[in-house]
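Record pair follows.
FIRST:
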Amino acid sequence: MLHNCRDFTRSLPSPVKLLPATVGSDAVPKGMGYLLAHVPAKNSKGFLAVQTFYTPYLRTTAIDEWDLVKASNVRVKDIESDSITKCKDAGTFACRAKHRMNSSKDVIVHSILIDDKCYTGALIPPDVDPSDPKATPATSSVLALESDPEFAEQC
C-alpha cells in the first residue's frame, strides 16, 4: 500500500529507529514511501497523504506526527505547538499541530487508542476511475466490485 518507495542503503540509511510498541519489537525501517490509502483528517479534503516507514517486522504502519504536518502542506516552522491528547476512558486521541498565525491551518487528526497506543482510523483507499489506464481492482471500487463477487456481495 506504499507508493514512491525508497529503500534505505548504507549510503542513504534510515533516519529513524522505531521504538518498541511491544517488548522486543524495535525495528530499523527498510525504506519509506507514501500511503496509497489516506489517513482521515479534519481538513478540506477529509484526509492526508502521509509519508511512512516500512519494515517487514511490524504488522502496522508507523506514522510520525510531524509527517501529518508535512502532508498538510504546512511548513514545520509555522507550527507553534503540537500535542497528542489521549482520552483513555473514551478510547480516543487527538493529534493537533497548532499553526502560529492561522487556526484554519491547524493539523488535527482524531482517532482511537488500543492498549494506550494511538492508531489512525481506517485508511481511506484510493478510488481511481475505472477508465484510467492505471486503474486496478486494488485502486478502483468499480473494478473491485466487477472482479470479486465475494467483495461485491459484502458491499
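SECOND:
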Amino acid sequence: MAAECLFYLTALLGRETVDRKPNPRIQEALPYYHRFWKTYGADSLYAAKVAVAGIPAMRKAGKIEEAMKRLQSVISEIAKTPDLPGLEEAIGSYTDEYLKDHSVRELQEHYLSGHGSPAQKALFRIAVIEAYENRPSGSLSQKDQDYAKAVIKTLFRELQQDFKLKDLNRFVLIKVGDHFRLEEKKPEIARRYYQEALNRRGQSRLFQAIMGLAEVNAEGTAEQKQKALPLLKRVANDSGDLADREKALVLIASLYFDLKDYEKAITTAKAYLNQKKFRRHRIECQLVLGQAYEASGEIDKALAAYLRIWAGSSKPSHLKHQATYHWMELLWKRNKKTGTKSDRQIAYERGYDFIKMTGQAIKKGSPQEKAQWQKIADLVKTYEASPDTKQIGE
C-alpha cells in the first residue's frame, strides 16, 4: 500500500473526535500507522504527516511516549534539510502534545537543553515563545507574567544574536521581524528579517513577509513610503487572505494621503468602502477619506465623511474621537448658518452631546482613547466660552 494511502487511513481513522464526540474507531488507525513505519520509515515525504496523525490513536492506546519519540526522530530528520516543508508543523504538533502532560517551563527546559540543527533550535525557541504568549494572563501571578515577558525577550534576542539569517526559515524570520517592529519598535532590525524572508522559496507565508516589509517602509521616509506602495498593491491584488487584502488597501490609501496625493487617497479609500465584504478597517478608511477631502478643500464632503464615523456608535474608539475632533474643528472653521443655527453653534452642541453620551464609556477606554476624548472635551469648553455660541442651558 502506498505511503500516501497509509497516511490518509491513519488520519481519517485516527481523528480524536468525530462530530465533536470521541471517535469510536480511533484504534483502527494503529495498524496503518505501524505499517507505514515498517514499510517506509522516517525517510518518506509523508513521515511528518503520519507521525502527527497517529498521535491521538497512540495516546488512546497508552503509547504516547513511543509516538512522541517517533515524532522527535522525524523532526530531527526533516531539520537536516533547510526549508524542507513540515518542520514547523511537526514541532507545533509535538509542542501541543507535550503541553498536555507538562508545564511551559518544562517545555522550555526540554527544548532549550537539546541538540539539533540551527533551524530546529530556532523553531524550538519560537515554540517556547508561543507557549508563553498563549497562556491566559488572567490566571497568572504578576511574578509569572514578568518571568514570561523576560523569557520571550531573551529568546528573541538569542534568535537575533546567535543565529545567522540563512539558518532561519520564513516562519521564524517573520516572527522575529514582527517582534522587533511591533514590540521593540526597531524597524531597521525588522527590515532585515522581512527582506530575508522574501528570499525564501515557495508561497507559504509569502504575503506576511511582504506585508511586514511594507509596514516598515510605510513608517519611514517619503522614499520608503513610495517603496511600500508596490508591495501593498501586490498583497491587495494577489493575496488569498481577505484580511491581508483589506489591510493592504487601507494602508495604500493612508500612504497616498501621507504623500499628499489626495486624489489617489480618495480613490483608494472609496475602493475599500465600496467592497461590502471589507469590514475590518472601515472606520480607519473613512477617516482617511475625510482627511483627504479636507486637504483637497472639499469641506462638505469631508464633513460628511467624518460624520458617518462618529454618528454611528457611542463606543469609545480613538478613530471615532479623531473624526469627531476633525468634524468640530472643520465645522467651526466653515462658519456657515444652517437654518436657525450657525456651524459654530452646531459644532459646540454636537461636541457637548458627544461628551455627555460617552462620559461613562470612556472610563473603560485605552489611554489613547482617553487622551483623544479629553481633546474633544477641551474643545467643547473653548467653544462654550466663545461669544459665537449660546451655552446649553441658558
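COMMENT: Strands lie at 17-18, 21-22, 337-338, 341-342.
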